[in-house]
């Protein structure tokens, strides 16, 4: 098997593909990202596999060497650090790819070149390999262009608990609507967008949100594939810890608004199902679920007021007697909706510049969107 030095001085025959061409063919070319795990964590392309050719520590050492001794010494150090782990890293990569693989690093440089050479040598003709020219940086540049480009969209609005996210899910399953046209920002952000928005795992732990770059990349990848108008929920700029980029948010603010109107009792039941029933049915521990709910409520105290907050906490405690019972949870849910969320919504809606083009219940809104999205695709 060739050494890194042989690969560095030889002419690698692995073909290259532009970042834009890869985006058009991404479903056919799964992506191997050979940047360090730290770089991958800070931002990556959705669906890509992390397979560092240099780990965080190795990359740090090579970087210091480059700064102090120059490129040649840094390459020599990189060779010596990676050589003992070469077989294992190739084996790890091959577990994920059987027919095609596109390889990227930060700028499509030496790390991509080494990885391509290794895989080509070991896998031969059974694995088709391409290198992405310009690497992750070039892919991200195209994705940011996509994210900032003007496009037709409809924004779905409505009070908290009105069922906007559920309606988006329903539309995604409609045969005449492409799933890429339904943009679920909360789903991509792993956050429901409210003070109670953090998502819990089955063990009751908070699920970590993606980093900002990864969130943007995921949104842009879907937009890149979408044909025709998109539908998305009206969101605040911040969705938990990630934010909607400025130019895309500006488009949302000026887009036509469709209002989903849902009676209070239905909204209470929807909140109960989403935040209590479904987590409990997924085996989330009751104690951790309630601790999370109470913690989120306390974070609202300055806006809700001390008296109302304590009243709501007392109602939550009473609900612990039978958490799966809607009647016991309805009082604190109703208090939160009426005293906080509905007032916040009314204030925000009064300032918005949206043009309301349709409003109705779930069935009416769904039918209107289906009909109008079909017209745009003809």
TrEMBL record:
Enumerate the GO terms in the molecular function aspect.
tRNA 2-selenouridine synthase activity
Q: Which GO terms describe its biological process?
A: tRNA wobble uridine modification
Q: Which Gene3D superfamilies match?
A: Rhodanese-like domain (3.40.250.10)
Residue limits of the Rhodanese domain?
Answer: 31-148
What Pfam families does UniProt report for this protein, alphabetically? Answer: AAA_SelU, Rhodanese
Q: List where this protein forms a coiled coil.
A: none
Report TM segments. Answer: none
Which keywords belong to this entry? Selenium
Q: What is this protein called?
A: tRNA 2-selenouridine(34) synthase MnmH
- Gene source species: uncultured Bdellovibrionales bacterium
